Amino acid sequence: MNLISIFSKYPTQESCLEHLETVRWGDNPTCPHCRSDKVARKNELDKVGRWNCHACKSSFNVLSGTIMQKTKVPLQKWFLAIGLMANAKKRLSSCQLARDLDVRQQTVGYMQTRIRVAMVNRERHLLQGIIEADETYLGGKPRNGLCRRLGSHQHD
Ligand SMILES: [Zn+2]
Q1: Whether pTM exceeds 0.85
Q2: pLDDT of residue 132
Q3: Cα(63) to centroid of ligand 1, in Å?
Q4: Domain-located, residue 117
C-alpha cells in the first residue's frame, strides 16, 4: 500500500483533474455529451478543469459521466479510496474508510458503492489509471481476479 505516492503525486484538486484528463482523454479531449472534439478549456480561475464544447454548447469537466461526477469530496480522497479498496485483502468497512479519509460514513458508503461498480464496468480503465500511477503499487502476485484485472495493462 503506497498512500504516500498518491499524496505526493496528486497533492491538489488540479493535479488530480490533470491526471484524470490524461487517463481519460490522452491528447484528444472530447465532449462527454456529444463526443465532439471541438472543445476548449475555460480560462476562468474559479472553473478549474472546466471545458466548453463548441458543438453542443455544453460545459463539462473530466468527471462528467463518471462515478465522480459532481462530487463534493476532494479528488485526492477518491484516489485514496480507490487505492485502498483495490489493495484491500478483504472488504473494507465503511467505518474504517471514513476514519482513514476523514469523510462521513454515509458519504464513504456512497463512494464505495460507486467504486465497486466502476471496478467491473467501462470505467475500470479510469480507476486503473489512478492506481497504476505508481508501477510498484500493484506489483507482485495478484491476490485475486479483481487485482489481476486492475493490474493488467491496457494502454494499447
Ligand atoms: Zn458537446
Answers
A1: no
A2: 65
A3: 15
A4: yes
